[in-house]
User: Fold this.
Amino acid sequence: MTPDSDFRPHLVILCVEDEPAVLDALIRDLAIFEDRFLIEAACSAAEARNVLESHCGPDRRLALVLCDHLMPGETGTDFLIALNREPSTRNAKKVLVTAQAGLADTIRAVNQAGLDHYVAKPWTGDELCSVVRSQLTEYVIENEKNLLPFLSVLDAPKIAEALRKNPPDDR
Amino acid sequence: MNSRAGGSVGVPDGGLPGIVGQIQTLAQGSVWISSRFRRISSGEILLREGEPNDCLFVLLEGLVELLKRRAEGGAEESVSLHGPGELLGVNSFATKETSFCSARVVDSGQCLRLSGEDLENLRTGNSELHSLIEQLVVGNLASRYRSAVSLHLELKEANRRIRQTTEMLVQHEKMAVLGELVAGIAHELNNPAAAIFRQREFLASSVQSILARAQALDDWKKFWDAGEQSSGGFVSREQFERITAAAPFLPRDIARRLAALPQELHSGMLNPSKNKLSERGEVALEVFEVSHFLKLQFLGLQQITHLVGGLKSYARPQGGVPQTNSLKESLESVLSLCSNLLKEHPVQVYVEESLEVLAAPGDLHQIWTNLIKNACEAMQPGKPLEICGASVESGRKVEVRIVDHGAGVAEEVREHLFDLNFTTKTGSENFGLGLGLSITRGLVKKMGGEIFFEDTPGGGATFVVLLPSAPGRDAR
Assistant:
């Protein structure tokens, strides 16, 4: 497994959720991805912005956001729309994890935020992992030059397929 | 348009009383006319519904009421009142159909009674009286037409109000049904919650007993207690980074789990190379986490029970029996049910623990819910809500102020604020039937209190509710 011994995780999964116990559960469910991705957490959209500002940059890019909708201050949907407008976060995959987003807000999230997936609370661990795996796989295929490090933790067949179509030398 | 009890009156044409005067003048000089004058006395029936009529009555003095049966053989309803200058019996007289209404004298007076033959004679003979009669006929028809038009408009308005009232009733019905459902759901929730509470406790004690026997770890109790004391809050970044700095080869998810453990328990948790947990570390961390999860379950169950308690108070019929209520608890119960609404508005409660109010708890909840909901809907996200409670009037009353920082209430709207069906919320998103404040006021009054409105200094609305203190409190 040597190709990735020099691998430094440089892609960020950001979790935004105002209920601490729920945030805790979310992070625990993502444990298997922690080997290859950096997991950041925030209790509100405002805190999430701070985290992005101080801990993300050109070498630590946002790959996936898992966000609750109803939070104090800015809603998850509004936050995702803002992320979609910023060039640095536009390509990140955006997922709402929520118990309560009305139809109007969901439509806005789909149309203006480019929502990639909607997970209804309560979620099962398997469901969440499957969604995260599939979203991250898409992200790395679209945005990453070196896909090999991700074979172990993401959707291996899809990554293999992508490698076949675009061998590393051409990337 | 004059309007007296029973319906509209076709009088207003200034000419009708004038014409009556002229007829009376003519009568003085004509026996023919004066002999057709008749006194009418209160209670006398001039026309009977459904019977043929061959006279035309010109009312000169007094008041006559028209009556019509609601249905075949049903009760008579008063339709309209008629005074001097009005004609009675025109329809039946002219069309030879039976009388549409009955006519009964209310105030005694005098009328001119003309038969078909009389009118024929007038037509060919006494032109002055005839032309007066003609004017009366035209005047009467005109005023009946006007009254028909305004009755039509009144009817439309009445129908509109009925539709509104029906909508309101439907809403009430929905709320009532919801209230009943909520009671059932609260009960249903309580059952599994109670079961889980018990099972959790059994689990906690079983696991501890297993740990004691398994002897995997001498000091397992320390880690168990640490889990029990955990607050359920999220792991701090500093702690996490301290560990990743001290053990850079430790997988991040393990570092994160370790970061949840209090600093003083960290010794011996890692292997010498610090790239994974030691055997002691693995067991200790699991013990800590089982205890921690059980603690989180406990906190979650508490939350459920608290919410269920809040819901139950809504479900009691008529709000329940008046009793002593802790003002603070009553408000906090509603605030927890409204926590979704309050996500966008920081709320501050300044209420002493000792304040108590005598009221039906469900009614109190409804009052707070309505005022808090209104306050939240009036404000932009981020604006704060303040709730203050104080004892006033030497402890006899409690004053509660619900202060919002929204747009406030416009001058012209203020006197209608508590009216039934008054609302400034229109449009599909923020629809209001205008019931909330009027119902709230009704409830406040029912418990012997008052509610009024004040401006929030700096902008916004403050609703002040004065309620009687629960008896037995000393004057402050």
User: Anything to note?
Assistant: Chain A has a mean pLDDT of 89. The helical segments of chain A are 20-29, 45-55, 76-85, 87-90, 103-113, 125-143, 156-165. The first strand of chain A starts at residue 11 and ends at 16. Chain A touches chain B at residues 9, 18, 20-21, 23-24, 27, 31-32, 34-35, 38-39, 41, 43, 70-73, 100 (CB under 8 Å).
